[in-house]
Amino acid sequence: NAADLFGSGTVNVVLGASLLLGQDTDLHDNTVNLNGGYFRADSGYTGGQVNGYGYLRGLLGGPIAVEVGTMRFEADSTIQDTGSLDVTSTGVLDMASRALTNAGQVTVQDGGTLDMMGTTVSHQGAGATTIQDGGTVNINYSGSSSRTSTINGAITNDGTINLHRYSYYGSVGNLTYNAADLFGSGTINVAQDARLLLSQDTNLHDNTMNLNGGRFRADAGYTGGQVNGYGYLRGLLGGPIVVEGGTMRFEADSTIQDTGSLDVTNTGALDTTSHSLTNAGRLTVQNGGTVSNTGTINNAGIVVNNGTMNNVGMFNNLGRYQGTGAFVGLLDSGFGSIAPGNSVGTMTVAGNFLLSDAGLLDIEIGGFDPGEYDLLDITGSASFLDGGTIALSFLSGYDIAGDIGDGESSSLMFLEAGDGIDGFFSTVSYDFLGTPSGFVYDVYQQDNGLWFSATNTRTGPGPEPVPAPGAALLTALGATLVGCIRRRFA
Hints:
Layout: E1 10-13, E2 18-20, E3 25-26, E4 31-46, E5 49-61, E6 63-66, E7 70-79, E8 84-87, E9 92-94, E10 99-102, E11 105-108, E12 113-116, E13 120-123, E14 128-131, E15 136-139, E16 147-152, E17 155-157, E18 160-163, E19 165-166, E20 171-178, E21 182-183, E22 187-190, E23 195-198, E24 202-203, E25 208-223, E26 226-238, E27 240-243, E28 247-250, E29 254-256, E30 261-264, E31 269-271, E32 276-279, E33 282-285, E34 290-293, E35 296-299, E36 302-305, E37 308-311, E38 314-317, E39 320-323, E40 326-328, E41 331-332, E42 337-340, E43 346-350, E44 353-354, E45 360-365, E46 375-378, E47 382-383, E48 389-394, E49 409-417, E50 421-422, E51 429-433, E52 439-446, E53 449-456, H1 471-480, E54 486-489
Parallel strand pairs: 1-4, 2-4, 3-4, 4-5, 5-6, 5-7, 6-8, 7-9, 7-10, 8-11, 9-12, 10-13, 11-14, 12-15, 13-16, 14-17, 15-18, 16-20, 17-21, 18-22, 20-23, 22-25, 23-25, 24-25, 25-26, 26-27, 26-28, 26-29, 27-30, 28-31, 29-32, 30-33, 31-34, 32-35, 33-36, 34-37, 35-38, 36-39, 37-40, 39-42, ...
Antiparallel strand pairs: 19-20, 49-53, 52-53, 52-54
């Protein structure tokens, strides 16, 4: 019970013994070695150093090092702005269900472990918690009971954070993270049914989160970092998400923000589970990936489907839908665009296709041989009764004169509908973009296909073709030919 313990000696506290500082005490250059003992600084501790393992509590304003064994908090405690707590080597800091206020420095070094179980860590002032490469933080359950730990204030993770599950009872360790940033480039592993909740708009920076059947909730927003694996999603998703294996499900209506992307690849599957998904960013379905939409997908961004999209629910397209994959169900262009291929390629619709009045069918041509132009392959019917626009353009660098000589013609089928085509005589507009003059261009229906043809009107040597008129003029020309079975432009 004094303000100072002068000197530079050693204080050894054996198993079960207790050193209690009865007032705010400066230990100066003394070293306290806990060998399973208790260090109680209810009124404050500054100076000196505490090493070893045992029990802590109070206002900790000097350095504490946990090098071997386990150090536990026996009461809610504070690391003051002059204090530090360093978990290193094979040391373990077990915070149990205590609350720690950190106004100083907490560092989990290579080999060190920090265990949380219903723990709350709050940061004040310049307080910082750093998990270095090789350091580990475990978010634990309590026997058969699930527990939620909370971190208030930003931390830096260059190591590993594990959210655990007890397979026998199914109990889990959940983590609520309440800060605008989670700095670092470490790893976060979320076990089956465990939950990481971002309670405010959070940038995960270069951290990678692996969902192993876990739940990722970003109700207030998520940017930066990357989320991999399978499990459950919800919220405002503004960073990359990769579904590599298993099934990722939405457990609430969610949004892929304009900065976000969701990539379903390998054998991964995405299931909207009757919820709505608004895509303002990029949704990509790679070859082998599957999206099952039993709710509503509102696409205001880009959907690239090179796999399979099973559409039992609603697909409202306000953006761009493209790719070489299969769309199962009714594909409605809506107010957006439908673009077969990723440059040129074949898009499959296992169902019906509708070009809406404000919709666009975007066809690219790089030649007249199969595989050199876009094809929309529809097993059902194709309807153009509402109008809309069909835009046909040549790929950059393609020279049609190299394929079609003077006085010659070539044609290609860019749409085929197994159950027929309705409304070819409707008010469909046509844009011919980047097509050179000196040719007559034609769009016509033959049986269940829509065809594009080009005729070279030149009969011999002459000047090089000049650029085609603008899209607006060509659209106007198309409107004057409504009702013709062939739509011809020179």
